[in-house]
Every structure is written in C-alpha cells, then in structure tokens.
Amino acid sequence: MSALDFTANSLQGSPIDLKQYLGKVVLIVNTASNCGFTPQYKGLEEVYQQFKDKGAEVLGFPCNQFLHQEPGTAEEIGAFCEKNYGVTFPLFEKIDVNGSDAHPLYKNLKAQAPGLLGIEAIKWNFTKFLVKKDGTVYKRYAPATTPKEMVADIEKLLAE
Fold it and tell me: pLDDT tens digits, residue range 39-50?
C-alpha cells in the first residue's frame, strides 16, 4: 500500500486525497508550535520553496501527543505558522501519530519505515518521512535532522 493511499483533512477541515501527491517527492512531518524544534518550520518552508516547482511537496501534520506542545485550534496553528515562519506548504488538521487513534497515514508510514531498533512509535515532534514518487517511504529522519540536511536525498529522489 502506498503511503499516499489516504485522505486527511486540511487545516481548514476539507478532506484532501493524498493520492494527488503521487508522482512527487513528499516530505511528511508531524509538527508542533511549542517545541524546541519548532524553528524547523523555517527550514521546511525553505525546502518547500526550493523544490515545489521541481516536483516536491512538504506536508505538515500538527500533533499534540508530545507534552501537549500543539494545544491550539486549527485557526491558531495556521496563524502561528504563517506569522512566525511564513509557512505556505500544506498543513493538515491536528492528528494522533501514535496509539489506537493514530491516523492511518502514520500507521502506514511507521510500518514502512520503523525507527531505531525497529521501534515504530514516533518519539517526538518533527519526525520526518521522505516518500518517493511511487508512494513508498524512502527514509525516516529523527526530529533533530534539519530540513537542510535532507536536501541531497530530495534531489536524489527527484532525479529518479
């Protein structure tokens, strides 16, 4: 099953068929507004601007499962990201990434690319998954990995 065989609600509440991103390199990240890694929004936006016209997308999925670092409403999240980091890449409604209520997208991502020692659970905000054009997961990246450090992998997948 492709990592993009799912639907997720946009930050405005509209269902988005993720299959529309097939044929593109997609960076999927669980985000939070009150995290030490929150400044990565800037790097994610830079990567999005660098590659959006070359066939890559960045998709942000706010999550409040890690020390309640994403408590806001959809409107608050959107305003925060735009005001503080100029985010223009697609953001989705707040979801769970772990547990029985985890979004099916994240269940699939974790199964395709488990973390260290084969543990599937997302450990923290800003865990990133890079998805190939065919919808398979290429690699999972730790929260501390900056978007800039992923540029070479994005370029490699765009060339395939």
Answer: 999 999 999 999
Q: Which letter does DSSP use for residue 14 in this model?
A: -
- State how far the Cα of 87 lies from the Cα of 141, in Å rounded to an integer: 21
CB atoms within 10 A of CB 2: 17
Query: Domains of the chain (ranges plus CATH)?
Result: 21-159 (3.40.30.10)
| Cα–chain center distance at 89 | 10
* Residues 22, 69: Cα–Cα separation, whole Å: 31
92 by DSSP, 3-state: which? strand
Structure tokens at 29: 């990240």
Whether residue 98 has pLDDT greater than 90: yes
CA dist 44 and 60 (Å) reads 9
Instruction: Identify whether the C-beta of residue 25 lies closer than 8 Å to the C-beta of residue 158.
Output: yes
Query: Of the listed 35, 77, 97, 131, which one is catalytic?
Result: 35
Is 63 an active-site residue?
Answer: no
From residue 13, give the alpha-carbon distance in Å to each of 9, 45, 83, 141: 5, 22, 20, 28
